[in-house]
Amino acid sequence: MDQHFKRQNLTYQNYTEVPAEIIQRTAKYVEELDLSYNRISDLRFLSEYTSLQSLVLDHNQLTPHLKMPEMPLLHTFWVNHNNIENLGVFIGTLAKRCPNLRYLSMMNNTAAPSYFNDGTYEQYTDYRHYVISKFPKLGTLDDKKIEADERSEAERIYKPVPRKKRKAKPPSSS
Question: Model pTM greater than 0.85?
């Protein structure tokens, strides 16, 4: 295995997706992929990256309605400086597609309130709790390690609400 292909840097290429010839030649070997400073908004092309563990997509055109394949090996995902405005939609997709994330960075997106984008401390804390509650293996969110007490609080606040069973309607006697 050529070490050159384990890490692939495709930054500043003005790509909307990785060209087919690059995918065909390298995708199955790539474990770390940096696609920062491109114009990517759709991640379905990543289905060919079957060994991918780390993905950096800073400064692209990602939105909350992200289209992406299942990526069970992915443990690191950076999406700083994108167009992610709806946290629930984005995190819902991400939790389904990348359940094993340990490092997630979403800084400078509207959905990730912080001091730097006029978010309040309360908004920042709630954002962290919500994201942490959706990823049991997450160890770092943005630039901050997740401590056990923060995880406990996140799980307390965002614990799943049990669904009530619907009572079956009795058969009508007509």
Answer: yes
